[in-house]
Specification:
The chain is of the alpha+beta class. Helices cover 32% and strands 33% of the residues.
Length: 209
């Protein structure tokens, strides 16, 4: 069960403890949060949550020069592509981070404006990404490349494609987060001028005692 801070984020430890109480009544034994800033996480920590994972937050400014090289292999995803997309996601992430249909749609709709892009080869999807835009900020929300097609620059192509889209939307800043242990992804983002911020994000966990 995921406890998410979306619009009405908790403002007190009491509110979080009431949420935990409701979860226990419904039979839940554990819960995780979405990625939170350290400031937002503190209320949950004070209410008994623990740190599940630390994430790096990387940002970069968007400029008029952020234009992708046109590629016929990068396409807009279609509703019927979801099975292939989720298969790539399952092969690309560990158990905790894998998407199923509900979490995929939640990530896609986390921003009011969004786009899902795919890289195709021989009519099969081999990589995909979710982009979001809100209030002059572009969010690179998900990026996955099939293990058999990694180290070919596909991730880099999707990053450039996202920056191009953010530029067209009028974004001033691009943001992405990734696990601290995912050195390969961090290096890719830093190669595209993203910079790690001094304070990252936290994913928290609650377990029934």
């Amino acid at each position: 069960m995921e406890v998410a801070l979306i619009e009405n984020k908790p403002t007190s430890v009491k509110m979080v403890k009431n949420c935990i109480y409701d979860l226990e009544k419904k039979g839940y034994k554990e819960a995780t949060t979405q990625a939170l800033s350290y400031e937002d996480a503190q209320i949950f920590l004070d209410a008994g949550f623990t740190i599940r994972e630390k994430l790096h937050l990387l940002t970069r400014p968007i400029s008029s020069e952020d234009k992708a090289t046109n590629s016929t292999n990068i396409k807009n995803a279609r509703p019927w592509n979801i099975k292939q997309i989720l298969n790539i996601d399952t092969l690309s992430f560990d158990e905790f981070w894998k998407f199923e249909k509900t979490s995929f749609l939640r990530a896609k709709n986390a921003t009011p404006t969004n786009k899902v892009r795919t890289i195709n080869e021989a009519n099969k999807i081999i990589a995909y990404s979710i982009y979001g835009y809100c209030k002059h900020t572009g969010y690179l929300q998900r990026l996955a490349v099939h293990p058999n097609h990694q180290n070919k620059g596909l991730g880099k192509s999707l990053v450039k494609d996202s920056l191009d889209w953010f530029n067209k939307k009028g974004a001033r800043t691009a943001m992405v987060n990734t696990q601290e242990i995912n050195i390969k992804a961090i290096n890719m983002y830093e190669a595209e001028s993203f910079e790690k911020q001094p304070q990252g994000l936290l994913v928290l966990r609650w377990d029934k005692k």
